[in-house]
Amino acid sequence: MRNVPFFNYPALFAEREQEFMDVIHGVLQRGSYIMGPELEQFEEELARYLGVKHAIGLADGTMALICAVRSTGIQPGDEVLVAAHTFVASSAAIYHAGATPILVDIGPDHLMSGEAARAAVTDGTRGIMPVQLNGRTANMDPIMDLVRERDLILVEDSCQALGSSFKGQFAGTFGAAGTLSFYPSKTLGCFGDGGALITDDDDVAEMTRTLRDHGRTSDGDVKLFGYNARLDNLHAAVLLHKLRTYDDDITKRRSLAAAYHERLESIEALHLPPGPDADNGHFDVYQNYEIEALNRDALREYLASKRVGTILQWGGKTLQQFPALEMRGKVPNAEAMTEKFMMLPMNTSLSLDDVHYICDCIEQFYR
User: Fold this and answer.
1) pLDDT exceeds cutoff 90 at 220
2) β-pair type (79-83, 153-157)
3) CATH assignment of 246-366?
4) Is the dihedral of CA 67, 72, 75, 79 positive or negative?
5) pTM score of the predicted model
6) Correct CATH for 10-243 of 3.90.226.10, 3.30.70.270, 3.40.640.10, 3.40.50.300
7) pLDDT of residue 1
8) Sheet containing 79-83: order of strands
9) Cα 52 to Cα 335: distance, rounded to the nearest angstrom
10) Cα–Cα distance between 359 and 256 in angstroms, integer?
């Protein structure tokens, strides 16, 4: 019986072990651990890849979100709209800035609904945070219309969407700031936590660089209370090395997604993410392959018996299902989705044979 874990970290390391060890050895040999040349070079190449003025390495995706909210002018007491289907860090960043997260419902693609966002606006709404989830960028047209009409601050949680685009524009580049995560399972992952903020706004960039280094400016003066939120140079060196072959990884992910789609689209019990060629407006990088399935729990048990790993993103809950956090918003679609959503394996350690085996098992279950 084939064994297909949900994510195979050792296999991904083994594929390029000597390359990674050479990179790590170079950093350790030079003793350049914090704010070193590899970080600066990674920031430059990431900014060039995305076509932005500034890419700023940060300790993780959560710190990128916190710095983005604080750097773009959202103030205590402001309301900020955020998609309900996201990790708690999205709303936590809003909370830690003293603002109030207001939950917005999702559409069939599991991303923020522009119509729901418009319905959630109040006189207190100051910002909006679409979450570019699972490697897909939301339909940004109605969201951008709302931003312009209401003069909202747009911060993108694009932590799962590096390289994804909508109508030729990269995720993270639509508003005042975008955020990235380099958590090990991300499309571009390091060997620990890492993140970045991207922006074309010089003031946002300067504020973020100050925040990430204890509130210190380039001349050593401390202007505000900041964080220890720097991206370690060792992680930056690994990310720099991986960025140079990143497009190859995305090509593979899209080929795996195409195989899933071809095999599973005829199963009525499943709702799949859009296929790689579903429309010309979206370019998806397939950070995850999140589906909805009837008899979801039984399907997961069956796949586990066939040694196929699956997970429920964020423990199977969306933000309205954490009552201790007391977040407001009407999100019936997100609520209903949690009864059916699950993720199939999606990473570059998979082979097409693995995908076909998974699809064989799913077909057997529904037969």
Assistant:
1) no
2) unpaired
3) 3.90.1150.10
4) negative
5) 0.95
6) 3.40.640.10
7) 83
8) 54-58, 195-199, 177-181, 153-157, 125-129, 79-83, 100-104
9) 36
10) 11
